Every structure is written in structure tokens, then in C-alpha cells.
């Protein structure tokens, strides 16, 4: 006997469970990143987004309610990979001048994953006729995009400040030295 064909509805529910897990994990990662960040703006961005993300977890619970399914988390291997890379980088770059740049980069990898997932979920919700769910998912999607953009801007400043320090050291130590621009 042929097994029952899975539908877009199933894909939606499975992906929702994946993102539910990922989102909870991102709250923990953001809190940890906020503690580790040296740069004020970066720390503030992490703290703000940790709060937003806790709210995003609640939005997901509302989406489960809308589709009439229990809110369950399913291990998201992708987010596990991203957060364990972050842990590794945190150890490797701890107390180094590049630590904040590395933290911001790890956080952006997480945001990009979320943007991909929420984009898909929003589209599927619309296609399946869950207009209210699509609206909730879009609110989260916009927050993820905004956070990614903010992290890009902060990262550019962090990186410039980091390389300026290097350049200054180079010119003061060097005989005559290169002219810092
Ligand atoms: Fe999120
Ligand atoms: Fe996020």
C-alpha cells in the first residue's frame, strides 16, 4: 500500500517546529553574545534582539495555535551548527582585537538563516490560506532583516576601528612609517 503523500501543510508544520527550536536557541546565543561583546553598540544590538527574539518565540506559538497544532520543537541541525561554530570562535578569538568582529559575523549567519526560514514560512502560510499567520511571520521577518542590517553597519565600524589601531601601531613603530590614511 502506498504511503500517504506529504503535503505543503506538512512541510509548513515541520519547518515551523524547526524554526521554533532555532528561535529558542537564538535567544540563548544572543544573551551569550551580549555578555561577550566589548563594543557598546554591538552589545546593545544583541540585548535588543534577544528581547525581540523572545517575542518571536511567542509569535511562533501563536502560529501553532492558528494552524491548530501543538507547539513542538524539532532539533534544528543548522542552528546547532551555527551556534557551535560561534562557541568555537568565541574561544579562539577571546580577548583578541577581532573578537567583536567575529561575534558580529556569527550573529549575522544566524540572522541569514532566520531570514531564509521566515521568508519561506511566510510564503507558505499565505499559500495555505493562513493570512494571520503570514502577518505574524512577516513581522518577525522584518525584525530579522533590520537586525542583519544593523549588525552590518556596526560591523563596518568595528572593523574600521580595529584596523585603525593596527595602522597606528605600524606607523609609530616603523622608521618614517607609512602615512596612515
Ligand atoms: Fe529570530
Ligand atoms: Fe534573529
UniProtKB/TrEMBL annotation:
- Give the highest taxon in the source lineage: Bacteria
Q: Which CDD domains does the UniProt record give?
A: YciF (cd07909)
Q: Which Pfam families match?
A: DUF892 (PF05974)
Q: Where is this region: Disordered?
A: 157-181
Query: What's the name of the protein?
Result: Ferritin-like metal-binding protein YciE
Give the lineage: Bacteria, Pseudomonadati, Pseudomonadota, Alphaproteobacteria, Hyphomicrobiales
Amino acid at each position: 500500500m502506498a504511503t500517504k503523500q506529504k503535503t505543503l501543510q506538512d512541510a509548513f508544520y515541520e519547518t515551523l517546529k524547526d524554526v521554533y527550536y532555532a528561535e529558542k536557541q537564538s535567544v540563548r546565543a544572543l544573551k551569550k553574545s551580549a555578555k561577550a561583546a566589548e563594543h557598546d553598540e554591538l552589545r546593545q544590538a544583541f540585548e535588543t534582539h534577544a528581547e525581540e527574539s523572545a517575542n518571536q518565540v511567542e509569535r511562533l506559538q501563536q502560529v501553532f495555535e492558528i494552524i491548530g497544532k501543538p507547539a513542538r520543537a524539532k532539533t534544528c541541525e543548522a542552528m546547532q551548527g551555527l551556534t557551535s561554530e560561534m562557541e568555537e570562535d568565541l574561544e579562539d578569538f577571546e580577548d583578541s582585537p577581532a573578537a567583536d568582529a567575529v561575534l558580529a559575523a556569527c550573529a549575522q549567519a544566524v540572522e541569514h538563516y532566520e531570514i531564509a526560514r521566515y521568508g519561506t514560512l511566510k510564503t507558505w502560510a499565505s499559500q495555505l490560506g493562513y493570512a494571520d499567520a503570514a502577518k505574524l511571520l512577516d513581522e518577525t521577518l522584518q525584525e530579522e532583516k533590520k537586525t542583519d542590517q544593523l549588525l552590518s553597519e556596526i560591523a563596518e565600524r568595528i572593523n574600521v576601528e580595529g584596523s585603525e589601531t593596527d595602522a597606528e601601531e605600524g606607523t609609530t613603530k616603523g622608521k618614517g612609517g607609512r602615512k596612515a590614511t
